[in-house]
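Thread: "does anyone have the structure for this chain?"

Original post by V.I.:
We have the sequence but no experimental structure in hand. Need at least a predicted one for the grant figures.
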Amino acid sequence: MEAASKLALYEKLMLPHLDAAYNLARWMTRNEDDAQDVVQESYLRALRFFDGFRGGDPRPWLLAVVRNTARTWRRRERASTTEPFDEAVHGSGLHVATIETELVEGSRFSGLRECLELLPVEFREVIVMREMEEMSYREVAEAAGAPIGTVMSRLSRARRRLQDCLAARMQESGP
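Reply from O.Q.:
Generated one for you, tokens below.
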């Protein structure tokens, strides 16, 4: 396949899934800027290895690339961080919130978002793919590189943890 037609096919198949890629990266990295970097790196990797795409639905294949890139990014970040970030020491002292953060914190979904942030990454990623991206169990399994049974188990445990977390928050807030 010539380079121009390969690039055109890549764009046609992969670009429609940019929002899903960003959504998964955002929940895995917990940071908008890092998520943008992960998505950019993921799309470059996907293009480089596009010959490995064997057809079918491109979304699970692309999200597997995003997932793997985010995990590699997290390992690099942990290795390069020798001192934990302390807001009192490193911060400017000013609270600079994004519009998204203000809206989420001010909405009735802030508790759910906080509970989702507390989930371990292997639970958070399957919840994002299944519930937010509305992927089938098969697609999630393909993207996560795990058997469907493992995905179903992780989803069950993630949902239970979310329910427990939300119930605890409701008890804390009182009647």
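V.I.: this helps a lot. The first helix runs from residue 3 to 14.
O.Q.: and Residues 87-96 have pLDDT under 50 and may be disordered.
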